[in-house]
Amino acid sequence: MRAIEEILIRKKNICKTVWFMRQAGRYLPEFQKIRSKNKNFIKLCLNSDLSSEITLQPLKRYDLDAAIIFSDILIVPYALGQDVRFTKGLGPVLSNFNIRNFNSFNNLEELQKKLRPVYDSIKKVRKKLDANKTLISFVGAPWTLLTYMFGLKKKDEKLNIEKFLKEKKIINNVLESLTEYLCLHINNQIKAGANIVQIFDSWAGLLQYDDFHTFCIEPNKKIVNFCKKKKIPVICFPKGIGKKYSIFNNLVKPDGINLDYDINPIWARQNLGDVVFQGGMHPRILLKSENLIQKEAKKYLDIFKDVPYIFNLGHGLVPETDPMKLKKLIEFVKRYK
Ligand code: CP3
């Protein structure tokens, strides 16, 4: 069995494994080359020849234990009919979301047809990827997708969100539908050849009290339970929730949990129970000297040395990362005893 899956399923500390969020992307010159010729990012994700090639780029350079399919969490809103654009400096820009259209959306065939290139890309990658390496699929958690779909991440964030959070019925409605679509998308990615799934709840940190339970815990739990029923190993990443990581872990019970860079790893080790730990180190540490990078990496490896731990970061690699420093870090992790 591939090491990452074995760690997630058996919860045993069998060997040192490593992969990185955003390991294929803007810090790699070979990615930049393809990207500069493909101005439309969503179209690039949906070009299965190119997206499979991009997925494999970091594995040609580095001794990583997994590939993560090159796609985006916003591919699902796109497939549901929203216009999604990535503009330099602005982040993702989505066309206005019409709740009426969303409520009348029931064309699951059309949804899957639009996402088919992602599944084709997974098939292509799995064919070329070494048998002992894991292919990771992913989705955005319903709440995080919703923040983008409703434009909550645009401007005037606080005001927007407070007013918006009063619309509980609408929110629940959308979250429930999204949960269904995401389970379908996960299942199709696994059928195409992906081995595990990671759920990104990047904006879970915006939620408090009851809203945290209803809009973050509940949808994540439903998706995790779906994965468990299908025997798909699943890692959750509820970013920015601080000490609520412990509540999240107790209630959602994923196989693995990715720590963000704000979480004190010693606290996590002591307070999160029976779970496989992943990540935690700040991605910006990679912009520092090699000495400092190794010191910080060693800190995480030492803290989690007796428990199952997959080395990764507390968020995605930043575009300024030096590919050589990443290489040295991977070698350091692999050498760690
Ligand atoms: O991790 C990987 O290497 C796989 C590919 C992947 C991308 N996005 C490619 C991408 C994954 C797993 C994602 C997840 C994603 N996308 C998240 C969750 C993780 C997180 O960052 O919190 C979110 C919130 C998004 C939405 C998104 N996509 C944003 C906010 C942006 C713009 C800002 C940014 O971080 O780059 C994107 C664009 C995007 N997605 C790029 C890549 C390689 C950059 C596109 C470019 O070249 O301009």
Would you kindly provide a brief summary of this structure?
The chain is of the alpha/beta class and 337 residues long.
Tell me the count of domains.
1
CATH-defined fold name: TIM Barrel
* Structural class based on helices, strands and sheet pairing: alpha/beta
CATH class bucket: Alpha Beta
Shape: globular
Ions, cofactors and other ligands present here are: coproporphyrinogen III
Uncertain residue segments: none
Number of helices: 15
Mean pLDDT: 95
Q: What is the topology, as strand order, of the major beta sheet?
A: 1-10-9-8-7-6-5-2
Largest sheet: 8 strands, parallel
Query: In the CATH hierarchy, what is the architecture at level 2?
Result: Alpha-Beta Barrel
Secondary-structure element order, as H and E? HEHHHEHEEHHEHHHEHEHEHEHEH
How far is the first residue's CA from the last residue's CA?
Answer: 22 Å
State the total count of DSSP E strands. Answer: 10
Helical residue percent band: 40-55%
Any idea what the radius of gyration is? 19 Å
Provide the β-strand percentage band. Answer: 5-15%
